[in-house]
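Q: Okay, next protein. This is RHOMBOID-like protein from Gossypium davidsonii. I've checked the sequence twice, so it should be correct. Can you predict the 3D structure?
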Amino acid sequence: MDSKIEIKVTNPKNGDKVVHSVRPGHATSPSPSSQPSQSSDGRRRRQGQGYGHGEGEGQRNRGREGQHAGRLIDFMPFKKWVPWMIPGFVLVNIFLFMITMYINNCPKNSKKCVGSFLGRFSFQPFKENPLLGPSSSTLEKMGALEVSKVVKSRQAWRMISCIWLHAGVFHILANMLSLLFIGIRLEQEFGFVRIGMLYMIAGFGGSILSSLFIQTGISVGASGALFGLLGSMLSELITNWTIYSNKAPLLTLVLVIVINLAMGILPHVDNFAHIGGFISGFLLGFVFLIRPQFGYVSQKKVPPGYIAPSRKPKHKTYQYVLWVCSLILLIAGFAIGLILLLRGVNLNEHCSWCHYMSCIPTPLWSCKNRQVYCQSTEFGKSLNLTCISNGKSEIYPLTEENTSQVQQLCSKLCG
């Protein structure tokens, strides 16, 4: 989406990209572009003799100067990185999904599995998981985000581990294609350190906002981190505005962000994680993705024998202002969010309309969560199940059959 962005390395303005040749032992000569045209052979000879050179040697020197000037105009101002981290992230997500399916072992826990020919890698029934994936209890074991465990059991690590888990084949396929499309371009431009930190912090920010609004059930997926990358692309265009000659990709990027956020109002999509990740990534972009101005970079690329007309600052004043303000907002936002979360605050109680940001009910669908989650406890030969969504509890005799069909018992209890 940003393939048409071009760095302004040509057509210098106000002399900030112009350099002048300096010959040893002589004063600085004016720029060739500022000299009048020379149509007389005799005049060219007199000028060459004035510098102590013959006509042929003067022409050779001018040829060398032209080559130096060409190198000044054509050099790459910013380093290009070889992307390896983003493809590595994709492989890690796929590997963890395979482990999750292996642990899930649908044939052992359910009578009807989708793709039974896959053995223990087969999927849960469509009624339980329409995304072709494992059961919610398996995802919970693997580290899905569950607010009750984060708050009561202090398992804060779930806010990071949930970023690497996915609910099904459709889920991981959509997220990994988006990650490759967005992440590789950013890693090429800014390197693996900054993009890796941005990805993780934005994903954590998405988990915080999701936990403050959605406190029943579990949540998994890299969507928050992905929206963080989208947000950082927007802020990168803003903070580095002056070095881009083509501003059209900004409108395209804004349109893509609006469409993706709008899709979050569909049922069973955690749009709060999207919003939290996007806001975190947008602020992080001002901090991590700031570019030095071209005039400053070009000074460091001047070949020997050339001098820049004046020293240029590394960054514009507005870049420093955005950097400081964004860093303050990030630290304050994360601190306040974590404090509210660990105190068990439910922001829906303080915002009566906020739940519409995640799902808007229509005649075509309902916003009620169809997935069910239960907490199980074994007491001797009894199995105690408690439905998290409605608080109902039931005690079942502990048999091998009941142990393997906990999810079905949970569905009946919560139904």
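A: Here is a summary of the prediction. Confidence is low (pLDDT under 50) at residues 1-58, 65-75. The chain is about 50% helix and 5% strand.
Q: Noted. On to the next one.
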